[in-house]
Amino acid sequence: MKKLLILIAGGVLALVLFSCGEAAPVKEIEDAKTAIERARSVEAPVYAEEPFKEAESEFQNANDFLSKKKNKEAKEKAIVSKEKATLAYHLSITNGAVSLFNSCGNLMDEVDRYFGFNVDSEAYEDCSQRFQLMKMDMDDNKFENVYWAGKELKPKLEDLLQKSKTAYEDASSYVSGVERKYNDLSYDRVAKEKAKDMLAEAKAKIDEAKGLLANGEYEQAKNKAKEAEELCDKIGEIVAQEKGKPAVKGAKEKADLEKEMNEAMEAIKKAKEKQQELQKRRKIIFVKPELKHFVFEVTIERGYIAEEVKVEEVSNTEETNEKKAIFQADEITETVTSESSSAEDKTVNVNSEESKVVVSSNEATEEQLGDENVEISGEEKAASDTELSEQEAVGETEEITITEISEEEKAKIKVKDEDISEEMVNKYISIAEELYDKGEYSKSLLYANEAIRMADILLEREYTKYYRVRRGDCLWNIAKFFYKRPLLWPIIYKANKGKIKHPDLIYPNQVFAIPPAPKDVDIKKLYREINYKPLFRSR
Q1: What is the pLDDT of residues 458-474, one digit of tens each?
Q2: Domain span at residue 492?
Q3: Residue 344's CB: how many other CB atoms inside 10 A?
Q4: CB count, 10 Å around CB of 26?
Q5: Tens of pLDDT along 280-294?
Q6: Is 0.85 surpassed by the pTM of this model?
Q7: Does some domain include residue 388?
Q8: Region 264-287 average pLDDT
Q9: Residues with Cβ < 8 Å from 526, sequence gap 6 or more?
Q10: Domain final residue, candidates 164, 190, 216
Q11: How far is residue 435 from each of residues 25, 177, 265, 269, 442, measured CA to CA in Å?
């Protein structure tokens, strides 16, 4: 009986153990977690992304099986996760070592380029030795040593490079500032007459400072530039005394004067850039490339090109030559493009219903224009003459010695919007330059800023364009291109009535002015004004 009870108890125990299965894989899951954290510490998500993601996925699966009491499956997933994490660790060490070695090498090159050994010799020597050790370990494939050495060296090199760049920029800015001061004095008549030798000495010191700067001797360059600046200050005092103005001696006064002078110069430069934009757009003539009339099988993409020329209008006396030009065939143009002759060329695509319009700024050479004799239009000639007269008048402007400008005077300088013109822009720029030469920087700045304001307003406005007629053109199509409304062709006819005998008769190489389209126009009235009668009537 006793033996029977023992057998029954053993069977029950075996049944219990069988039902419970394997124990929870706590150790395996902990090992997998440790391996994943180790891989993460060497940036495995960056350098070994794929195996690291797999390790994390398997680890998540192991935890899911554990929560469902499936210990066997959980253990298997935890083991796989550990293996993947270990692989990610070693792969990340290798890839990271290569990446850090390359980064440190590039940083060393940059530090050398900015003469870091002159800026901080001790830090440079330390970084150089560390990099040489990294290089030796890299040659021996000791990637783990390279990785950890690179992690320490990279921030040190970044700090040294930033320090070197700052030293260079500081010295370069100082030398450039002194050079600008010298350049301003070198154009001054009094300075050239009364302080010629001092100017030469200052120039020599500035050149020496620039040489030191190029060799990484930043402190020495600043010291040499400081000597040149002292000479420039002395020259400035001589100039001020000769012109009957008190010399500026205080550091604050010097800084304020230099700031005011620089602001005036920058404003004049900007005003001149705007002036060039206004002049450039008046020198553009739109043209359409001609095509051989006997080619039919090629699909042609028609368009219009803008050519920049020195003058704008073909003389009426060349009308005979223009009529002959209609029989000349040009080469086939499949895609209309303009080849830019300078780095400032721009291309703008404008889509219309029938053709793709390509407009680009492009300076035409004499060979492109051929032998045609081109003259300036009446409007252009008037503008040019006005500009010349303004420039001549500037030389006769009376010297202005006002140091403080009242609000009333500022109001007088400002031009009403309705009186703004390109001639006024030119005039104000000339006055600003004249005042700058006299040392009246505040007033020069006001005139330059007003010139900029007027130029901006003019650049936003519509302006008269010019178009060179090509074979197959008619006023209808030209109006359609420029106005998007072909019915407005009488506007072009009226603006060029002296060149057009009849609206139906226009000739190649004629240049027409294309005035801005009016906002509100009565089409019927427009046609009545020109009293249009078709030259050819269909039967």
Answers
A1: 887 777 788 888 888 89
A2: 465-530
A3: 9
A4: 13
A5: 776 666 666 544 433
A6: no
A7: no
A8: 80
A9: 488, 490, 491
A10: 164
A11: 89, 22, 11, 14, 9
Give yes or no for a contact between 288 and 306, defined as CB atoms under 8 angstroms apart: no
Spatial distance between the Cα atoms of 320 and 509, rounded to a whole number of angstroms: 11
Q: Tell me 535's DSSP state.
A: S
Query: Average per-residue pLDDT in the chain?
Result: 74
Query: What's the average model confidence in pLDDT over 369-394?
Result: 39
More confident residue, 536 or 495: 495
Mean pLDDT over residues 325-346, rounded? 32
Partners of 467 in the beta sheet?
A: 286, 512
Residues 6+ apart with CB under 8 A from 466: 284, 285, 286, 312, 313, 377, 511, 512, 513, 514
Closest CA to 265 of 397, 394, 437: 437
pLDDT at 375 over 90: no
Domain boundary among 148, 164, 180: 164
Residue 153, pLDDT above cutoff 90: yes
Count of the separate structural domains present in the chain: 2
Enter the DSSP assignment of 487.
G
- The C-alpha angle with vertex 492 and arms to 486 and 493, in degrees rounded to 5, equals 105
Residue 264 has pLDDT above 70, yes or no: yes
Q: Cα(134)–Cα(277) distance, rounded to whole angstroms?
A: 56
Is residue 126 within 8 A of residue 72, CB to CB? The reply is no
Residue 249 and residue 386: Cα distance in Å, rounded? 43
How confident is the model at residue 404, as a pLDDT? Answer: 60
pLDDT of residue 466: 84
**CA-based radius of gyration for the chain:** 40
Q: At 197, give phi and psi (nearest 5°).
A: -65, -40
Residues in the chain: 539
CATH code (residue 471):
3.10.350.10
Residue 268 lies in a domain: no
CA–CA separation, 249 and 247 (whole Å): 6
| Residue 329 belongs to a domain | no
In a domain? residue 492: yes
How many CA within 13 A on the CB side of residue 21?
Answer: 10
pLDDT digits (tens, 9 = 90+) for 55-68: 999 999 999 998 88
